[in-house]
Amino acid sequence: MPRWPGALALGLVMALVLGAFGAVLARAGAFAAVTSADWAAARFTVMQASLSALLSAGLAVPVARALARRRFPGRQLVIVALGAPFILPVIVAVMGLLAIFGRAGWLNAGLALLGLPKISPYGLDGILLAHVFLNLPFAVRLLLNGWASIPAERFRLAAALGFGPREVWHQIERPMLRAVLPGVTLAIFLVCLTSFTVILVMGGGPRATTLELAIYQAFRLEFDLGHAAALASLQMALSLAAAGLGLAVARPAAFGAGLGRVADRWDRTGRGLQIFDAALLVTTGLFIAAPMLAVLASGLPWIAGLPGPVWTAAGRTVIIALVAALVAVSLALATGLLITTLSTRTARVTDAAVMLAMTASPLVIGTGLFLILRKFTDPIALALPVVTLVNAVMAMPFCLRVLLPGLAALRADYDRLSASLGLTGATWVRLVALPRLRRPLAFASGLAAALSAGDLGVVALFADPGQATLPMQVYALAGAYRTDQAAGAAIVLVLIAFGLFRLFDRLGDRDADL
Amino acid sequence: MTLIRRLAACTFLPLCAAPALADEKPILTVYTYDSFASEWGPGPAVEKAFEAECDCDLQYVAPGDAGALLSRVLLEGRGTRADVVLGLDTNLTAQAEASGLFATHSLTGTVLDLPVAWNDPVFVPFDWGYFAFVYDKTKLATPPKSFEELAASDLKIVIEDPRSSSPGLGLLMWVKAAYGDRAAGIWSALADNIVTVTPGWSEAYGLFLSGEADMVLSYTTSPAYHIFAETDETKAAAAFDEGHYLQIEVAAKVAGTDQPALADEFLSFMTGPAFQSIIPETNWMYPAIALDGGLPAEFAGLVKPEKALLLPAAEAAEMREAATEEWRAALAK
């Protein structure tokens, strides 16, 4: 297995993230001091991200387990719908949540009918609510991949040995989680570390001040690049520390190879267990579906009347998303293959380094790239290619998270067989890698496409009004009092993100069942 | 396939497409904020009107909101491509002027129609408005008449963060201009009225429209949009006895411009009737000069504050950090 594609991909990602950061620092001249308010912001940032990650990942375990061991009509639909919240543009998700949990939401209307006092979702609990809503389904999807990676033969053996749910948990599921859960928790922690709109809208006031807001303030209000660089490096240090911790806890599971059949489960017949799983799935389903439906209901009536520029922007967004997905998955695949050839320690360091791209502040990356590019050309003229590349690089760590468990299992289980058969290069990719990796590859592509479609972070810094993407148009409409049309355009964005996600997911699901 | 290919072409090949269209006309590059340049802002109509008389190509660059706009210009420094920067407000002009990147304008004899006297040698106003709390008349019969009444009530408001939004910063200055040293106390008293603090105007206004709050920090002119576009007369702005803080939006010529004459021509055009008559119904602010035909009908019933508050630009810049910290401390309790 040649290492150069992985090294190249890794180099590109690192060069982009560190280069952009370096450009900001070089322009600033020096770091500015970090103030006591910044440390308070750092503490709050870490606190809310930790709680959000632990809650989301912790709740995802029983939900994923219930989904993994149950078969029911509409199960496939549930799994697909689980992808939706994570890929929603954040402000759309927040508005949907508020339609249910807000002061004027359905929940409070229900409470009022019962004569109960109003609840307010603003504050730390609101932030956690939104972060769990956004990330729990993503965690469930990643964990389901973990369950799917357990060879069916192991469950058959468990049944032959007379294992009940408890033994299956101890002998099969827990070791799998030990391998997968730390990475999942870490990914959510890192996502929440740089969360911006959720924190501000749901946070209820300046008690909820994060590093990302401080960076924003340093750039936009103080124009203090040294301060922004100092804050950004503090944020990166926190991410690296978390990545180190998370990956140190992970232990690879060794189940050995299977024939890749769908697992039947003999440990799921207990009545109490059935009721528990059903109740869990219904509650989660409602929690995820209600805000999504509220979003759809508010936007659908306005879609037909959307002005032409919105549709042009939609076309542009689809293309950016598709290209970015292709680039992101290629980068992730190359990097993932490289990681599986490294020693455990080096692999962890590499993995942690890639995570940096996930937590780099879009504002820092965007500003840095702008500073670099304008030395050579007019950055605005290159807006869309640059935005596509940045989206790909920022989606790449998510793709890697999705691909790594499958890749590791592939190498562990099939390398000897491949070597004895002399399978290498393109033949190996076609006969061994693609069939085995089809589902995670499809999921990763869908995820990258959807994330790129919804991105507003970097595009806003570069794009000129004539090259607007759909997220920019949503904000433009909302900024021009056209709240209804903005809701309609947001639905188009959701449909695009979800459509791309579903398109890829289907490609991966053709002959497989999660 | 052709559609996709064409879309791909206009997505990835702006460089190749542009030269085919460009002729020998001089290009005037105007940096502005995103909602000015968007399809639904004044930008497109202004471009058409100016190009009809300048024999030039007017191009916008819109790197974000007003804060992002200034930060882009400062980032680019002397090498900026901008000929004119349009869309700063008086909370940002001191910082902009201190950069030395802007040149004095050459306007003479322009009669402005602002609530305050204006004689800045660099920055030229193109519109203005009063910050105000907007509410729904059908849900709130007697709105508060001052910050103190608002604080004493159990009304819920949503405001913008002064650290990320210009209306948020405007509110900060409003309270400071009205109450001076008592500002911290006002903020403490308001704390239990504030539902949440949003990153920008559009999130706050969206929350208000979806019923999350009784009032939202916006402009006295906001109700005009609802009357004009939605024949909805239920929105109104509350008049406060302390007076209302002004937002005056300005433009300036960039010192290093390669089109100084064209930039001057644009600033002059900007304070003329063709540009100014576009402003009320696209930017939903007051024009900077008196229009011959008067204001559009939907502006007639709007609240007209009796007292306009505005801190001098230098003073606003000087107190911003301390006022933000005071705001943060009072609301973080």
Please, could you describe this protein's structure?
The complex is a heterodimer of chains A (514) and B (333). With 514 residues, chain A is mainly α. Chain A contains 21 helices and no strands. Chain A is globular and about 65 Å long. The relative contact order of chain A is 0.14. Chain B is built from 15 helices and twelve strands. Chain B has helices at 2-12, 14-21, 34-37, 43-54, 66-76, 93-98, 147-152, 166-179, 183-190, 201-209, 222-230, 260-270, 273-276, 280-283, 313-332; strands at 27-32, 57-61, 84-89, 102-103, 124-136, 157-160, 194-198, 215-219, 235-238, 244-254, 286-287, 308-309. In chain B, strands 1, 2, 3, 4, 5, 6, 7, 8, 9, 10, 11 and 12 form a twelve-stranded mixed beta sheet that branches. The N and C termini of chain B lie far apart (59 Å). Classes of the chains: A mainly alpha (514), B alpha/beta (333). At the A-B interface, helix 5, helix 10, helix 11, helix 14 and helix 16 of A face helix 1, helix 2, helix 3, strand 2 and helix 5 of B.
Task: List the keywords.
heterodimer; A: 514 residues; mainly alpha; 21 helices; globular; B: 333 residues; alpha/beta; 12-stranded mixed beta sheet; 15 helices; 12 strands; 41% helix; 20% strand
Q: What does the overall shape of chain B look like?
A: globular
Mean pLDDT of chain A: 85
Q: Write down the Rg of chain B.
A: 21 Å
Question: Please, how many helices of chain B?
Answer: 15
Low-pLDDT residue spans of chain A: none
Provide a concise account of the structure shown.
The complex is a heterodimer of chains A (514) and B (333). Chain A is built from 21 helices and no strands.
